[in-house]
């Protein structure tokens, strides 16, 4: 019996192997849910710390949870290798996030999106983030529609996507 070869899987495998072997720094986007247990936030913080310490540039957004943990780890490793892109202007962010965001050197505000709902602004922001990266690491729940759509769009653009589910 003959087997058919699934070409997309071979391309994905080759892409993943190339990413593992790449020794130069990469632009990595790290995104995820706001609703993350503290233990998971600590793991995400350690991951972003290690990625930046390895010379990679990290791009994320400014929300609580996953993104806040990524910011914390990157800031500890090298604040110059972190870019935070906000879905709306800084003053539209939650009070608990603003103090952390004020310390970010490379902060991009999208004040043009202030009239949009947070969901719409977040979707646009995520598109901008994946346009700036080579690889996307995402932490989501199975019902995190905006994040799952972002992963889909990143894959369609040929980005390497690693998706972790909390549930």
UniProtKB/TrEMBL annotation:
Protein name, entry field: DNA recombination-mediator protein A
Highest taxon of the lineage: Bacteria
Q: Which organism is it from?
A: Lusitaniella coriacea LEGE 07157
């Amino acid at each position: 019996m003959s087997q058919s070869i699934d070409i997309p899987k071979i391309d994905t495998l080759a892409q993943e192997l190339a990413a593992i072997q790449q020794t130069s720094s990469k632009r990595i986007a790290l995104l995820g849910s706001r609703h993350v247990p503290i233990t998971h936030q600590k793991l995400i913080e350690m991951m972003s710390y290690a990625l930046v310490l390895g010379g990679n540039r990290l791009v994320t957004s400014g929300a609580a949870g996953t993104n806040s943990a990524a910011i914390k780890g990157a800031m500890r490793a090298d604040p110059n290798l972190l870019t935070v892109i906000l879905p709306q202007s800084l003053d539209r962010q939650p009070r608990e996030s603003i103090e952390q965001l004020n310390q970010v050197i490379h902060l991009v505000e999208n004040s043009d999106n202030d009239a949009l709902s947070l969901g719409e602004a977040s979707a646009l922001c995520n598109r901008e983030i994946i346009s700036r990266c080579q690889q996307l690491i995402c932490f989501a729940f199975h019902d995190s529609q905006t994040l799952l759509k972002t992963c889909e769009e990143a894959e369609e653009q040929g980005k390497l996507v690693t998706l972790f589910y909390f549930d």
